[in-house]
Amino acid sequence: DGVRRKRAVLSVAFRYLDTYRELLQEEGDRSNSFPKELYLCAVEQLRRYPELVEDVLKLQRWTEILNCPSDEEKETRKKQVRPLFRHFRRIDACLQPREAFRGSDEIFCRVYTPDHSYVTIRSRLSCRVGEILALVREKLQYSEEQPVLPGNLVLVAVTSAGEKAVFRPSDEAVFTTLGVNTHLFTCEPSELDSLLPLPEEIHWSPGDSKLHDMSAEEVATQLVVFDWELFSCVHEVEFLCYVFHGEQARWRPLNLELVLQRCSEVQHWVATEILQCQSLPKRVQLLRKFIKIAALCKQQQDLLSFLAVVLGLDNPAVNQLRLTWEGLPGKFKKQFQQFESIADPSRNHKSYRELISSLRPPLIPFTPLLLKDLTFLHESCKTFHGELVNFEKIDVVSRDVRGPTKACFKPAAMDTETSPSHLQTKAYVRQLQVIDNQNLLFEMSCKLEPRDT
Which residues form the signal peptide (predicted)? Predict the structure, then answer.
């Protein structure tokens, strides 16, 4: 019986090591103490339980793999330096399939100064703020525009609405925490009040949407394909780290944060396209097209973009366009009311839960709601009862996380077209130009259709 129980423990350990192999290798010595300690304990038990010799040898191989990865593994982990999601707008980069980000990946990123000039730095995705500031200082030292080296620098995130968040020197992996139109600035503490959003984030110019020249089917397909790529990059452990550990997580949920950014981006994209359109008939056409896009995303079981589009149409700045909504045909009004009922949060999102329970994998869930459920479960149930693990809670969490992640694979032959119009739509969907300042959206709405006084 003792052998059976010890083998059960080792079986769980092997499954853990196999699941998180890449993450453990990336962490190096910081995370390898557990398999080493377990191996030493198992070796001590060999005299009493010689039947464990095979398991102990397997555990020894695991400690060697984690400490000294093979040349082949090292080669596969080498990745080309990439511009981070949204921070650069390069066609050749955006058309490439998305790959999972790891903390050791190197990226390019722009860091702005108070006069809106910027330096481009190359750093690890997981590096600390202090390291970023050291790289910026080095760049500024050789800049002709900065003859005097600044003193005590701070790193600040500035949103398009002018809100500022100062990072601590010990903060890590700040790149993926930035909002849709949020940029990194560096300055001295005395210059904080002078920081302003980039001009292109404050001003807007009316004009016809590129969507008028694209079919709803093509746009919806590209939304779905991109969501599959992003969601497939999310490792199961990222959900757990996001909910259980937050900022204290050993592994930053980098890819999960990018999925959440995308959800916000699509919502603001819908509002931006409609509110930039000056022609009433064309706005009505855009409303129809977005409702059709939402229907197609739902049909392809991409609930992330489906609800993001619906919530974008429900933006108060869009909702108050009375003349635009009155011009919508009754068929589309009825369809949108059905979509709104699915997005209705009442009775604990009953309509959405009924919908998702009726679907069969593969599907992409509405990730913010999945995280909300996991957070509620975590906070309402204890993980430990004394020294005992609450396995009932762990089992429920496991089912909630593994359900969507195991079902997440890109259906075959979804994105094989290579015509110029197809590539243009693909680039457009992956590089959405959005306004995320709600005050500015309201201002645009009032100019389009002034409210009755």
Answer: none
